[in-house]
Request: fold
Amino acid sequence: MKTTSNSVVESDEFCQSDADFAEAFTHAMTHEDVEGMLSLWDAAGEWKIMATGETFRGLDQIRQLATRSVAARNHPAGTGLLPFNVFMNPEGTRLCWEYVHKGVVTDKWPSSSAARPAPGTEFELPIILMCEIRDSKLVKIREYFDLQTLTEAGTPHLLYS
Reply:
């Protein structure tokens, strides 16, 4: 097993097209390349935000999600989508993309909730994307994060202590 320059873990059975897919996904996500990210999707793909239950189906809805997400935050120097665990299964059908999203909320934050962060709020949000791939295309992403980290930035929430 080896790790590439972008923290993509490869097994001995990992084929080059899988590494290329992981690298293309990482590049699109870290460079806010909406069209590049969309080129990796199956037309009937689905992106589910697990914290809210929202589901975006098909390229048009996924494009809206990505475009609104990019408009909702700024990335001053040293911030952005910062992946630190990126790996695929040997079959190339699953991609796990774990990262910290650091940024500053803009006035274009898309939430309709009253518990939305104020523009200018700095955030640091751990996120995991669990991706399903078929025929070298994304068919589903389940996005996991703690919603209170955004809606109540700076407020500690403890479960066991």
Summary: DSSP finds four helices and nine strands in the chain.
